[in-house]
Amino acid sequence: MFLPSPPLSPPPVDARTGRSCDKRYSKPPPPPPPPPLVVTNTMKQFVLIAVALVGLTSAQFPNGRTLDAPNPALCASRIVHERAPDGKGYFFSWRDPTLRGVEKDWLDARNFCRQRCMDSVSVETSPENEWIKQRIVEGRQKYIWTSGRLCDFKGCDRPDLQPTNVNGWFWTAELQKLAPTTVRNQNDWSENGGIGKPQPDNRELIQGGAPENCLAILNNFYDDGVHWHDVACHHVKPWVCEENDALLKYVKYSNPNLRI
């Protein structure tokens, strides 16, 4: 059973502008117009959470690529292929007839999900992990992206994240730290990979390529079963989206007349 880890602190925000102090982070969506009713503390928390999630992005992607803000129209028309026992909705890219054979890199996959008030899947518990893995096998997919990522941007030099290859992995969709990679019974890292080492192994960087800073689930790719692997983020893969409560609440609050 995966045990919960403390949430990862969002990047610092300029109190005057509401924007991240790090230019590599994306610009948060504009605040909603003043509502006719009194704004409760709960509503404020919803907006702050959504802004924090929109603000987090990666330094690895060039050309000014950033996370996308949710699109209200796409949120309202989002497709849910299946709901988990807890009621949360999931989208599987290979089940959409218009996306069969389509693969995206880690950031594009997240943006597809986020535009629809979803995010790349974060497998935070053993039951969810097994549930997702079963769908991968049933769908005959070789691999998928998750929201998992190594902390590799400004602020990742915090003592509690050192060394980052052990303590710096987190679910970006939830800003939730993963258990240390050395605590093998609290995660699902594979015991094998491209160079015969337990994951994460940063194989591509060792072999002269890009750092393996993103987390994918591979389906017996190395004759190792269905497990987590660190993979360079520019590779393209199918993806799974899951509904994101913070983004849904933000869009509902910002668009009170829209049925989400």
From TrEMBL:
Highest taxon in the source lineage: Eukaryota
InterPro entries linked to this entry: C-type_lectin-like (IPR001304), C-type_lectin-like/link_sf (IPR016186), C-type_lectin_CS (IPR018378), CTDL_fold (IPR016187)
Record's compositionally biased regions (Pro residues): 1-13, 27-37
Matches recorded under SMART domains: CLECT
Presence of keyword Disulfide bond: yes
Compositional bias annotation for Basic and acidic residues: 16-25
Keywords from the UniProt entry: Disulfide bond
Renumbered residue ranges of the record's region Disordered: 1-37
Residue ranges of every copy of the C-type lectin domain listed in the record: 85-242
Matching PANTHER family: LD12305P, RE43931P-RELATED
Protein name: C-type lectin domain-containing protein
